[in-house]
Amino acid sequence: MSKESAAITGAVQVPDSVVTIPNSGEKHHGIPTAVFFDDVASLAVKNTATGLIDKLSALSQKYRFFEEKLLKSRDTLGEKIAEVQRALKAVTSLEEKSTRSGDNSSDIETQFELSDGIYVQAVVPPSRAVCLWLGANIMVEYSYKEAITLLTKNLGSAQTNLAETNADISYLRDQLNTTDINLSRVYNHHVQSVRKAAAQGSASKTAIGAAT
Q: In this structure, how many other beta carbons lie within 10 angstroms of the beta carbon of residue 189?
């Protein structure tokens, strides 16, 4: 810390390593709640302005790290929901066609996704069951009704998780905004205090020079 900075933050200085910022102690799904600084000047006296800036910058980075993880999770859930919806639509269609045909003795003509965006014509032989990927290279055969029940359950769970993730992102951004506002106010206070101290020092030198 510079001598000029030390002169404006109070007579007793607190080492940056032990600077503390107000903390409500509350958390939302592991996300710490940020506290708005009502009295920046008082905090700058109790601590050091540079120490507060460092602590707030670290907290802001932590929030941004959380945000990045949540955004990736949201994207993953969105892809999962779309995949489950496609599977559910396909199985539901197969069940409806099976119900209309009675004994399900006719082939079904459809398109098969060979790779992303590439489809080929396919003929599905009569069947009353489908195989679903469960992950980890595991595929299990289910009846139409069982498959629809499972996919519907998985879709509901994914949609619930997505809603919770979106709520967490919204909450996190509120905490990030509060932290960044605190950081800006502490920085501005620090700059103004440094300028004030410099002006007072210049005035003192001028007064001494005039007296001599």
A: 18
